[in-house]
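Homework help thread (please don't just give me the answer)

Our assignment gives two proteins as sequence + structure token strings and asks us to describe the second one. The first is just a warm-up. Here they are:
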Amino acid sequence: MFVPVWMIFLATGTLMAVLVIVWAIRNDQFEEQDRARYLPLVGLSAGEMADQPPIRRGASFYAIMAIIVCGAVSLVATLVLVLRT
């Protein structure tokens, strides 16, 4: 009984990882790597550092929250199944 539960947990985690990679590729998350390479070298003025960036909660925020919720639900279900035996 112990091994099948962990196999389900492993399969769920693998499926979520694949879905995240597919989402990232479709939304061009891996584009513009040349620009990202130089970002640590760009200096900000004191005024720019004092300004707080606006909070943007777009589709990526909700996708990450959905992934976290799915992981938490999978973890709880696994623990319930394991502790019930």
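The one we have to describe:
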Amino acid sequence: MATKKPAAKKSSAKKKSAAKYGPAAGKSVEREMHAMHEGKLKSGRSGKTVTNSKQAIAIGLSEARKAGAKVPQKKS
């Protein structure tokens, strides 16, 4: 009787992709979220207080872009 050897598992070499956002971008978003929770974050044009966390993240990423941090381009 011939016994079959179990087939060796193929190592699927996944290519690691680089991080989309740099650490400076994370710091900027963290700062803006903190300001939003304190009620000190204002929107640019109208000057109203920001209460939406998604808007706070967008403001943080926008400021990080202007500062030259590693952030993907805005989607059009």
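TA reply:
I won't write it for you, but here's a hint about the kind of observation we're looking for: The radius of gyration is 22 Å.
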